[in-house]
Design brief:
By secondary structure, this protein is α/β, with parallel strands linked by helices. The chain starts with a helix and ends in a 6-residue tail after the last strand. The protein is elongated and about 105 Å long. 27% of the residues lie in helices and 24% in strands. The strands form 9 sheets. An 8-stranded mixed sheet has the order 27-28-29-30-31-32-34-33, sandwiched between helices. The chain has a 7-stranded parallel sheet with strand order 4-3-2-1-5-7-9. A 6-stranded mixed sheet has the order 11-10-16-21-25-26. α15 packs antiparallel against α16 and α20 packs across α21.
Length: 622
C-alpha cells in the first residue's frame, strides 16, 4: 500500500511529529535494534520539550546524549535493562533503572502503573492490506504502543517483516514519518576463546538432542552456541535471536521438529545482531515473533519439553545465590529474562537451567564464585531457582542439594587459586565441616578423558566418571545401600559405618594418577545415582591395587569388567605395568572378572582365606 496515497493525512516530517509531544509527557521508545533512531534525534533536537520522562529497554541512540547536562535537564531516562552503551551513565547515576521481570513489563503498561502518553516505534512499510511490521522488536514494543495515547512510527524500508504477532495496521498508528536508515547493529563483544571453548564443552554435555534452547543475551551464552554444532534437532524458544544462532540454523542443527510447543517454529521476542541476521529473519516463516508477556511467561515456557535455559551471571555465591544485574551498588545490566526462563525450565518436562560464566573477572584477579555476594549486589536468582552452574573448570549441580554439597560443588568449579580461600570462608560461615579438605588446586580438565558410557543389554546407559570431593554424600549413600554380603566381600569384614572422617582420609590421598576412583552413574527419576565404584591405588612403582563394588541389582551385567578396562587404561597412562588385588576365596564372580581379562594372572592364597592376584597389562585377554 502506498503510504503517500492512503496515509497522506498522517504523513509528516520528524520535526513536525515530535511537536505533538507535550512537555511533561511520558514517552516509550521501541527496544534495542528496533529503536527509531531518526525520531529520537528529532525529539532530542526539539529544544522546546522539557521534563520528558523516557521509558525504554536496551537503549542505544540516547547513549550519545547522556553526557550532556542540557539533555539531562530536559529528559529523564528510566530503563528496564542497562545496555553496554548506557553502563557508564548508570554507574554515574545519570539514568534510572527499573528492576522487573521482562514478562511483567507489558502488564505494567496495560494496568497504567506505568502510564504512557507517547510511543515512538519503528515499522516496515505497510503491505497491500495496510499492515506494517514491528520487525525485530516485538518484545515490549507492542504493549508500549497499545497503551500509549499517541503513536508515532518511523517507517523504514530496511526494517524486516517478521511473522507472528508483529503486525500493526496503519489505522492503529497516529503519525507516520518516512525515513530510511540502517538498523542498529549489536555485537555481544569479544570473549576469551579458550575459556568459552571449555565452558562450551561442559554445556554440550548437558544439552541432549531434541532439546529446546533459550539463550540469554550476553557474550558468554552467545559464544557457547557454536559448541552445540554436534547436536541434532534442537529447537528455539528464547527472548532474543542473535548472530550466534545463525550457524546452527544454516547447518540444520536447529530444526524445531521435536518441539512440543509450536513445532517447526523459532519462537522469539526480538532480534539483535548484524545486517546478515536481519536479512535471515526477513519474511522467514520459520520465525514466530511474540510479545514478552507470551515468550517470557514461565507457564508458556514450561509447555516446551526439554527446555534448557542458558544464561550468565556476574557472580554466584557458595549457597547458590546469583547476581546478574549489579556490581555491588553499581547497576550493570538488568533482571531481564533470566528468572522467567529459570522458573519455566524448572516446570518443563525434562527441562533445566544452566548459569554459565567464566570463573574469574578483571584479568583473573577476582573470582566470580564467591563466599558471599558483594555488598549491595542484587539477588536476581534465588538459591531455590538454581540448577546447574558451569565454568571453564566443570559443572556444579545444585538442585535439591544442601549448603554443604553446594559449597563443595561450586568450590570445585572455581578457579584453582581461589578454592582454598572459598573453603576457608565456608568454614567461617559454618557451611561445611571444620576439617573439610579443599578441592585440588590442579586444573582437572584432563579428567574429561576419563569419562565414558556403557549401554547395558537391558537398554540402560551407565555413565562413568572420576569420583570428586563433591560426591561425598552420594558416595556414602551408595555404600549404605549395599547388602551386608556385598560389603563383606569388598572390605573383608562387616563394615557398618562410612562416616565423614573416613571419607576425608580417602579424599586426602586422591591425586587422579597414583590413586583414582571411577563411579558408575545410573539415571533414577530426575537424577543420577552411584551404582558402582572401581578404584586403584599405588602399591609400588609399577603396580597398583585395584578393587570394585557393584550394587546388587546391577551385578552380572558386565559393569565390573568394563570398570577394570577403564582403570587399566588410566593406570597405563600413568606409568603402571599391572594390577594386584586381594579377593576373598568365596568371591568367585570377582575372580572370574579378573581371570577373564588376565588369563595368565598369578594367584597366591594368604592366611585368612583370601587370594592375592597379580595381573600384568602386557598379557590381557583379547
Amino acid at each position: 500500500m502506498d503510504l503517500k496515497q492512503q496515509g497522506a493525512h498522517k504523513l509528516v516530517s520528524a520535526e513536525q511529529a515530535v511537536r505533538r509531544i507535550k512537555s511533561g509527557s511520558r514517552v516509550f521508545i521501541g527496544t534495542g535494534c528496533g529503536e527509531p533512531q531518526h525520531l529520537i534525534r528529532a525529539m532530542v533536537g526539539n529544544q522546546t520539550l522539557q521534563d520528558i520522562m523516557i521509558y525504554q529497554m536496551l537503549s542505544s541512540t540516547l547513549a550519545r546524549y547522556v553526557e550532556d547536562p542540557s539533555f539531562l535537564r530536559r529528559f529523564s531516562l528510566k530503563l528496564f535493562f542497562i545496555s553496554v552503551s548506557m553502563r557508564k551513565a548508570a554507574f554515574e547515576g545519570r539514568i534510572d533503572y527499573i528492576p522487573v521481570y521482562l514478562s511483567q513489563i507489558p502488564r505494567l503498561f496495560a494496568s497504567h502503573r506505568i502510564g504512557l502518553d507517547v510511543a515512538l516505534i519503528q515499522v516496515s512499510p505497510p503491505d497491500r492490506y495496510g499492515y506494517c511490521s514491528l520487525g525485530v522488536s516485538v518484545d515490549i514494543t507492542r504493549a508500549g504502543m497499545e497503551n500509549a495515547r499517541l503513536v508515532i512510527a518511523q517507517v523504514n524500508p530496511r526494517m524486516p517483516r517478521t511473522w507472528g504477532d508483529s503486525f500493526v495496521h496503519m489505522d492503529d498508528i497516529d503519525i507516520f514519518v518516512e525515513h530510511e536508515e540502517p538498523l542498529v547493529e549489536m555485537n555481544p563483544g569479544n570473549v576469551n576463546e579458550e575459556v568459552v571453548r571449555r565452558i562450551g564443552h561442559y554445556v554440550s554435555q548437558l544439552v541432549d538432542d531434541g532439546a529446546t534452547l533459550q539463550v540469554g543475551f550476553g557474550r558468554v551464552p552467545d559464544a557457547i552456541l557454536r559448541y552445540l554444532d554436534n547436536k541434532r534437532d534442537l529447537g528455539i524458544h528464547t527472548q532474543v535471536i542473535t548472530d550466534g544462532f545463525l550457524p546452527l540454523l544454516e547447518s540444520k542443527v536447529v530444526t524445531n521438529r521435536r518441539k512440543s510447543l509450536l513445532p517447526g517454529r523459532v519462537v522469539a521476542s526480538l532480534c539483535m545482531g548484524s545486517t546478515g541476521l536481519y536479512g535471515y529473519v526477513d519474511n522467514n516463516p520459520m520465525f514466530y515473533f511474540r510479545s514478552s508477556e507470551f515468550v517470557n511467561d514461565p507457564t508458556v515456557i514450561a509447555r516446551n519439553d526439554q527446555l534448557v535455559s542458558i544464561s550468565s551471571a556476574l557472580e554466584v555465591d557458595l549457597t547458590g545465590q546469583v547476581c546478574s544485574d549489579s556490581m555491588g551498588y553499581l547497576f550493570y545490566s538488568g533482571i531481564g529474562d533470566q528468572v522467567d526462563f529459570l522458573r519455566g525450565s524448572a516446570m518443563s518436562r525434562g527441562g533445566f537451567s544452566i548459569i554459565a560464566l567464566p570463573s574469574t573477572a578483571q584479568n583473573g584477579e577476582v573470582s566470580r564464585i564467591v563466599s558471599h555476594l558483594s555488598e549491595g549486589a542484587g539477588v536476581a536468582t534465588t538459591r531455590g531457582d538454581i540448577n546447574f552452574v558451569v565454568t571453564e573448570y566443570g559443572i556444579a549441580e545444585l538442585q535439591g542439594k544442601g549448603i554443604y554439597q553446594r559449597v563443595m560443588e561450586l568450590a570445585q568449579i572455581a578457579h584453582p587459586k581461589f578454592r582454598e580461600g572459598l573453603i576457608a570462608a565456608a568454614k567461617q560461615h559454618r557451611y561445611i565441616f571444620a576439617d573439610q579438605l579443599p578441592p585440588s588446586r590442579e586444573d582437572l580438565l584432563f579428567l574429561e578423558n576419563y569419562k565414558s558410557t556403557l549401554k547395558l543389554k537391558n537398554g540402560k546407559t551407565i555413565e562413568f566418571r572420576p569420583l570428586l570431593p563433591s560426591d561425598e554424600f552420594s558416595y556414602r549413600n551408595f555404600f549404605y545401600s549395599l547388602q551386608e554380603k556385598t560389603i563383606y566381600l569388598r572390605f573383608f569384614h562387616n563394615k557398618r559405618l562410612f562416616p565423614h572422617e573416613i571419607i576425608q582420609r580417602q579424599w586426602s590421598s586422591i591425586d587422579y594418577r597414583r590413586n583414582i576412583s571411577i563411579v558408575g552413574l545410573a539415571q533414577s527419576g530426575g537424577h543420577k545415582e552411584i551404582i558402582a565404584i572401581g578404584s586403584y591405588a599405588m602399591d609400588n612403582e609399577t603396580r597398583a591395587e585395584v578393587a570394585f563394588v557393584v550394587r546388587e541389582d546391577y551385578q552380572g551385567m558386565g559393569i565390573a569388567s568394563y570398570l577394570l578396562q577403564v582403570l587399566e587404561n588410566i593406570a597405563k597412562e600413568n606409568g603402571f605395568q599391572g594390577f594386584m588385588a586381594a579377593v576373598l576365596h568365596e568371591n568367585a564372580p570377582m575372580i572370574r572378572v579378573f581371570k577373564k581379562r588376565y588369563p595368565h594372572l598369578r594367584k597366591t592364597q594368604q592366611e585368612g582365606g583370601e587370594f592375592v592376584l597379580l595381573m600384568d597389562f602386557s598379557e590381557p585377554a583379547e
